[in-house]
Amino acid sequence: xxxxxxxxxxxxxxxxxxxxxxxxxxxxxxxxxxxxxxxxxxxxxxxxxxxxxxxxxxxxxxxxxxxxxxxxxxxxxxxxxxxxxxxxxxxxxxxxxxxxxxxxxxxxxxxxxxxxxxxxxxxxxxxxxxxxxxxxxxxxxxxxxxxxxxxxxxxxxxxxxxxxx
Length: 165
Known about the structure:
By secondary structure, the chain is mainly alpha-helical.
């Protein structure tokens, strides 16, 4: 997100408003002092949610953890969180631990690309469907805490994946 400056001075803007007057969109970006002069400053009674969440994460993780930085492009994970844009392909590796849960949530738990198989692939499609069913059974076995079945399914899946198509 782009950091805005106050319309009346060079301080960071902390108050933003948008008004539509006679079809014209008028945006105002003011610092605390100029917002108070304009009568826009409202005293915050509650702590902002982003500050609460940041403090919660710091407490739960045992303080401020060292921030991850991509060695290739220099992007910090906090910058990614603000813009939702990665800097290069190496960012996927650098931020793998943090991106994993985000991608799982975005793709309803999926972590591997299953994709479509071309019709001409024939047996390959059946293989993909079989693997898909086995992974689903594996997830169900883990959920039911049937670890013996889960280990067998995991080994079977690995065996199938290692076979040439």
